[in-house]
Amino acid sequence: MRRTEALRDLVRETELSPRQLIQPLFVVPGEGVREPVPSMPGVERYSINEAVERAGEIRESGVPAVLLFGVPAEKDEAGSGAYDDEGIVQMAVRALKKAHPDLLVITDVCLCEYTSHGHCGFVRDGEVDNDITIELIAKTAVSHAEAGADVVAPSDMMDGRIAAVRSQLDEEGHANVPIIAYAAKYASAFYGPFREAADSAPEFGDRRGYQMDPANALEAVREARLDLEEGADVVMVKPATPYLDVVRRVKDELGVPVAAYHVSGEYAALKAAAENGWLDERRAVLETLTSIRRAGADMIITYFAEAAAGWLR
């Protein structure tokens, strides 16, 4: 049953399809801007008009969704650009939904791109204040929903933020907006290129005080269960390939839709190896994404989404 491609297709256990992929998209101020991200070959930051064009290309490839990140012109200690109704993400959402009504627009809900210190929340006495932060996170989610976001995805890892977001969305008339919770987001070394793309590296300390310890797996299940109890519709594991065991545990124990984020460092490593001729990029990427699906992920956020969709046709 392995002898020919047709035979192999008949007994294949895991399906990888463009409809399971989500393409991240970075939006910056200006007009006609396309800025390459040096540590992520092939990835660029776009002004809104260019992002609209780019989103059309992504949708045409068969990828149904984008995950939107905004990089504001100005930052402050409270990350006020995150919940500004005329902020970069809010304006981008309106433009994207007007131009591509059938494109699923998911927004990353966090403060790290908007704070002057680069942390994911409001800092008091050198530490992130959890309770103040969740109020701002909920305010940001409502602002995104009012702009037309189809789904909001809180990524800050503050305790209780899913309950706060769900409550505020419901109160403000957005009861039908789903939540993808970054439930098990690890304090990983694989985020480096993203922090260049989003201009979000912490100015002091690190994020180990609120992101998860890479050594812990049972904790990931507890975190995901808590997020579900608070109102999450999908739970996410991030990063993906170093945590395939966690993806499997969460899927098996909770039996709910699971997302996995194939992050910037994973992308950059594959790209570097391919550009040096050490790997066949197409085969290595599709094998990697298939492994994430095989582990139990129902959807994969990956910078390879559009390319993979083309290879899968």
Tell me the layout of helices and strands.
Layout: H1 5-10, E1 21-27, E2 34-36, E3 44-46, H2 48-60, E4 65-70, H3 88-99, E5 104-109, E6 123-124, E7 127-128, H4 130-147, E8 151-154, H5 161-171, E9 180-185, H6 192-198, H7 218-230, E10 234-238, H8 244-254, E11 258-262, H9 264-275, H10 281-295, E12 299-302, H11 305-312
Parallel strand pairs: 1-3, 1-4, 1-12, 4-5, 5-8, 9-10, 10-11, 11-12
Antiparallel strand pairs: 2-3, 6-7
Helix pairs in contact: 2-3, 3-4, 4-5, 5-7, 7-8
How far apart are the termini?
A: 23 Å
| Rg | 19 Å
CATH topology: TIM Barrel
Global geometry: globular
The CATH architecture can be named as: Alpha-Beta Barrel
Strand content: 15-25%
Which spans of ≥5 residues are poorly predicted at pLDDT below 50? none
Tell me the domain tally. Answer: 1
Instruction: Using the coordinates above, name the CATH class.
Output: Alpha Beta
Q: Output the number of helix runs.
A: 11
CATH homology-level superfamily: Aldolase class I
- Strand and helix order: HEEEHEHEEEHEHEHHEHEHHEH
Number of DSSP strands? 12
Largest sheet: 10 strands, mixed
Mean pLDDT: 94
Estimated structural class? alpha/beta
Helical amount among residues, as a percent range? 40-55%
